[in-house]
Amino acid sequence: MATMQDVADLAHVSLSTVSYTLTGKRPVSPATRARVEQAMAQLDFRRSPVARALASRRTHVLALAYPVYGVSLGATLNEIVQGAVEAAREADYELVLWPVSSSEPEVLRELAAGRTADGVLLMEVALDDPRIEAVESQGLACALIGRSADPADRVWVDIDFEESLEVAVDHLVGQGHTHIAFVNRSQADLDAGYGPSVRALHAYEESMAQRGLTPVSTPCDVNPGAGRRATTALLAEHPELTAVIVMNELALFGVASALREAGRSVPRDVSVVGIAISGEISDMYDHPLTYLAAPGPDQGRRAVHGLLEVLDGRPAPAGVNLPCTLQVRETSGPVTRLTTP
Hints:
By secondary structure, this protein is of the alpha/beta class. It contains 14 helices and twelve strands. It has three domains: 4-46, lambda repressor-like DNA-binding domains (434 Repressor (Amino-terminal Domain)); 61-158 and 296-323, Response regulator (Rossmann fold, 3-Layer(aba) Sandwich), CATH 3.40.50.2300; 161-294, Rossmann fold (3-Layer(aba) Sandwich). It has helices at residues 4-11, 15-23, 30-43, 49-56, 75-90, 105-113, 130-136, 161-173, 187-191, 195-210, 224-237, 251-261, 279-284, 296-311; strands spanning 61-65, 94-98, 119-122, 141-145, 155-159, 180-183, 216-218, 243-246, 271-277, 290-293, 320-322, 325-327. It has a six-stranded parallel sheet with strand order 2-1-3-4-5-11, with helices on both faces. Helix 5 packs parallel to helix 14 (296-311). The model has no long low-confidence stretch (mean pLDDT 89).
């Protein structure tokens, strides 16, 4: 592996000149800079993170705080992470995982105190998320992939769940459905104030109420078995259902199992619409799933870009709600059987 001394020898400059070219601490003439950069390219020279940290007093590392315990990093969340990784690497940063949930702020406080990262990206954000204070109390900036109840002037990038649920309900009502259920994430998420679950539930209830329809919702753990049990219970209690909106990508597969076991054909008897999921999940469903596509990669990229602006001393960009895009495929269709009001 090439060293800075190798670059200096090939470019016929001093070691300090190579350092100044890399750090910008002192001016280097354009001709000299060109020779150094040509030598680095010829030697395929790459600075180590340690060398960058010593030169700039930055680690050039961003931490992604994500609660991996008891939570699946499914296809949809993986797209967010991938977008963040790509944006970080484009800026010559590395992204590391800190597996810390909102119930473990002291763990995150200790990690932040170690200064092994320049800033922190928080995923799975609760409306009142103690991780924010834990990070900022140690002098680190944070960016929210999601948003708290009061994100203030912090960097945040969220999905527009209000618009997404309105679009989903409108799509189904437009096909004649009036008995539409909503399968959410877990009761534990709702109790903890997990932002997406709370906002999506309120948006669904409001969209149904605006149309004079009765909302029927159920919490559901994030796994296929829970989806199967939740859907079986919904059908038993509300046999008139003709459509189900699901914001729980792993539960979707249990929803499909329960509908098959109940003899309900999709979409002839029951339409199914997924909320904030990836195209990969849609393709894995029994039939190509009608869904609102999550803006996952864009979420990750925007959060990283905003955090880097703050690290460079610029104001945080305004928070943004990104829309989901309706993809009508094979699991939604017109009502074909009579229902009782």
